[in-house]
Structure formats: C-alpha cells, structure tokens
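Researcher: Good morning. I'm working through a list of sequences from a screen, and I'd like to move beyond sequence-only analysis. For each chain I'm collecting a predicted structure so we can compare shapes side by side. This is the next one on the list. No need for commentary yet; just the structure.
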Amino acid sequence: MIGKNRRKRTWFATAVLAAGALSMSAMPAHAEVGVTSTEIKLGMTIPLTGAAAPGYNKLGDAMNAYFKYVNDNGGVYGRSIKLIVKDDQYVPALAIAKTNELILKDKVFALVGSLGTANHKAVANSVGLARRGIPDLFINTGFSGFADKSVYSTTFPLFPSYAMEAKIMAQYIKEAFPGKKLGLVYQNDDFGIDALKGFGQAGLKFDVTVPYTSGTQSASTAQTWVSTLAAGGAQVVVMFGVTSATGPLLAVAAAAKYPAQFILGSVGGDATTLKALGVPAAVLTGAQGASFLPSPADTTDEYVKLFQEINAKYNNNVAFDNNVLVGMNSAMMTVQALRAAGKNLTRAGLIAAIQNKGATFASAGLAPLNYSATSQVGYNGYWFGQYDSTGAMKPLSGGVVVYTTDSGTGAVVKSSYKRPAMPAKGLPTNS
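Model: Good morning. Structure tokens for this chain:
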C-alpha cells in the first residue's frame, strides 16, 4: 500500500512538471517589458501643443504612418509596432512626467524620436534611462553632450551635433561671405550654446549676438532682435533656433526692409512650417539653410518618393515637409534596429544591435551614420541650399555637396559618402 501511494505521488509530480514544461513552451521565449508575441510597444514625447509645436507636432504621426505601412507588410518578425505619443509642450518638467508615464504606466519597450535638447537632457538624467537600461533611439536633437557614452549609454542622437553644424556653417560663411559683418540669433540653452562652441572651434566671430530664451519667441521679441541686428550693421545673419522663432524673425525683418542675408539652422528652417506660421514665400525666398536629408520637395529621390506615397495613404496626406521626412526616416531606422536585435527581442540586444550594425542602416540621409561600439553619434554632415519662391531648398551650386566633421577640433571636409540603395519597397530585410 505504501509502495502504491509512493508510485501515485511520483506520477503526480511528473505530470505537474510536464504540464509546467508545456505551459512554459507555450509562452514567449522572452519576458521583456513592452514586447509580446504579436506586438512591440514604443513611446515618444514631442510638443503637440505649445510655442514649439508648429512643425514638430508632425513627427509622431509621420513615424506612426511608416509603422502602419510596415505592420501591413508583416511587421517585424510577425510583430506589429505600436507607438504611443505624448505631449510635452517642449517643457522639461512635462517631458519627465510624460516619459515616466510611458515607462511605468504604458510599459513601453523603448523610447524613440523624442525631441528637444533641454527636454531630453532632463529626461535622461531624472528618469535614469541609462541606469534602467531603457533604449532611447534616434532622438531629435544635436546636443553634442549626448555623445558621451559614459553618461548617456542608451541614448542615440539622430542629428549631427549642433557643434558639427556650426563648424560646417562657419566654413561656408567664411568662404561665401568674406569681410561681411555677421550676426547671430540663438536659443540661449544647451541647444544654442553648443552651436556657439562649434563656431568658436571654427574661429568664426560674430559682430552682433542676440540670445533668446526658449518660449519667449514672438513678433514683439523679434522686433527687438531685428533692431539690435540692424543697429550693429549685421549683413549676414545666422538663425540658430526653433522654427517658431525663425518665423517671426524673417517676417519682421521683411516688414522692416532689413536687407540681411539670412542663414537658417537645420532645426528652424522647415519651409512648410514657416509658411504655416504666416511667413510669405517671398520673404523666405533667398534665405539659405542646411540639411543632412534630401529636400522634401525632391521627388527624384527614392526615399522622398516612397515616403510621400506612405504619407498619402497612412498620414491623411498632410503637407509633406522636412518634419514628416525626418519622422519616417527615423521609423525606418527603428525597424532596422528591431530586426537587427533578433526575434528574441531584449533591450540590451536592441542597444547592441545599433552599436554593431547602426552605421550600415538604410537611410534617406545624405551624410553617413556613425553608430558603433564607441560612438553614439548619428549623422555627421550637412549640405547648403537656398530657398526658392515655392519654399523648396535647392543646392547652391547645382548639386548637393555634403561636408562632414566632428564635434571637436577635426577639420571640415568634403564628403565622398555614397548612400546605399533603399530596400525594396522601403521594407528593411536586415537581420
């Protein structure tokens, strides 16, 4: 009797273990936050409202449009991508609160495409992204400090650093406008100060400098800017600020018949947004700008053509501009990063995938990507163009010439980079 009971207990234990094994085999091989067998959940914060919203509020919808396109074509190893977008109003405290919501309440796998230097610096430090191992992909800022892997080990900026942009811009100004009096309007925080560093490294000195505080940009403040620039005799004026600051500056300068040559930084130079802010095409015409992407008006570019088609089908055919282009391009890069991380998706694997393979990702960028085991930097170059009467930025010398540099003392050089062909139908197959 004792032997029979022992055999029953042994059989029962074996059955329980077998059932447990079957249950475990039915579960996904991973237990990563924000990832199931059918879905990958991502999050971002951008200014959907507030002073900096114009233009930048299109980034989330643009990314979602591309993700919907990918989802309709099989997703990433059979998983659909879900992007949750929250409004931070370009206010650091709100960016912290909304990012915490994404991580703690929405339980996203990774952050992607968030915007703003001050915002993201506050988020990275306060939320502890590096300490918690949370991937922070393709952020829309060029603050050079984010390249410090010892502090921001999980953060991967998309833009060339503002120091790079300023160095390249300085080289161009010295060649194109020798002997001219120079003026600079810049956002007085890490964004603009990073640019000041780059201009200084390039040995470019401004005759008139006009700093402004983020959120104060308006027609009335622009009146003061223009008065100061005119009084100082500035003949060439660099605008290193957000689009909602560029718009009033150009409009007030035109109304005052202030004849300066304006050169717009990449962040604040989107023509569609400027026109939506009330800047007439005639005012924008003749201004110059910098970009690391093709012109969104260049329908001969295969990436622009595809993204315009996706925009028409999945994004209500909103006005296609640089912000939409940036968003879709970042989404394509995100899909490649997810694929490169493999089917058993983990946060650590995603970070490693960008470090190991990020420099090879297909991209609309006309400058190379620089991600590696030792570099968190995305693009590193710019080309210059001039806005025509339609708002399109056309190359200054008949063709796109890209210049590259670093955030330090390296030289500005003409790039020989040749962009890889776009994946078939814009659907990455890398692994």
